[in-house]
Amino acid sequence: NIPMPPVKYLLGEKEVLLAYRIFEPANRNAIVANVILAATETNFFAVLASTLSSIHPFRVILMDVRGHGYSGGKRGHTPSVKMLYRDLGQVVRHVRGFSTKPIVLA
Question: Residue 12 carries which DSSP code?
């Protein structure tokens, strides 16, 4: 079993909560990049996120897409690709608030 970091939330457009988890490397001072992965169910990517953050100096942010996983919105539905991009932008701005390291969208 992979230890799962707690679910955190950002307020997205239309008052929808966007859920994400942050997998931190052991040495936070050695972080070289923030990797953001958006998916319909980020629990499926926990092994990948845990491996990346434990073997490499990457902070991995798993984001549940609007309407999926722990994020709010109509279940199983993301209104548009444009909304998905805006939600990703919201997460990128949030990460920029606590890190100056490069951001990689995966």
Answer: -
